[in-house]
Amino acid sequence: MLNSWTGSAPPVKHADTKPVLRHFTSNTQFVAVKPDRIEAITYFCSMTAVGNDHWGRYFDVFEPHGKLWLFSRRAVKIEGYAEGGWYHTNRSWPQS
After folding, report:
1. pTM for this entry
2. Fewer CB within 10 Å, N side or C side of the chain?
3. Residue 21 · residue 85 · CB < 8 Å
């Protein structure tokens, strides 16, 4: 499925609608859980109207702030993308 699209410039919207870019996360793995810090890895997949656009993993660190656990760091690793897709034409932002 991830490599089946062969077009050159996929549309990211259906006719007469706003562009579609949906982001799905799954399989969060807690790598380290301590009283003052949690480290986790989460897989993600981003879809457009034509299918899977790009996918990879988030590397997150959470720290407590009062009663809440909040992100203190997030790094992203893009592991693949569709040629000609949204990410392929907009990937100028830095990755860690």
Report:
1. 0.73
2. N
3. no
For 88: left if phi > 0, alpha if psi spans -120 to 50, otherwise beta; the answer is alpha
Question: For residues 29 and 40, is the Cβ–Cβ distance under 8 A?
Answer: yes
pLDDT in tens, the chain (96 residues): 344 544 444 455 555 666 778 889 999 999 999 999 999 999 999 998 778 999 999 999 999 999 999 999 999 999 999 988 888 888 765 554
CA trace torsion 28, 29, 31, 37 (10° rounding)? 30
Could you give the count of Cα atoms lying within 13 Å of 3 in the half-sphere of its Cβ? 2
Q: Which residues contact 42 (CB under 8 A, 6 or more apart)?
A: 25, 26, 27, 28, 29, 57, 58, 60
CATH number of 21-82, picked from 3.40.50.10740, 3.90.1150.10, 3.10.450.50, 3.30.360.10? 3.10.450.50
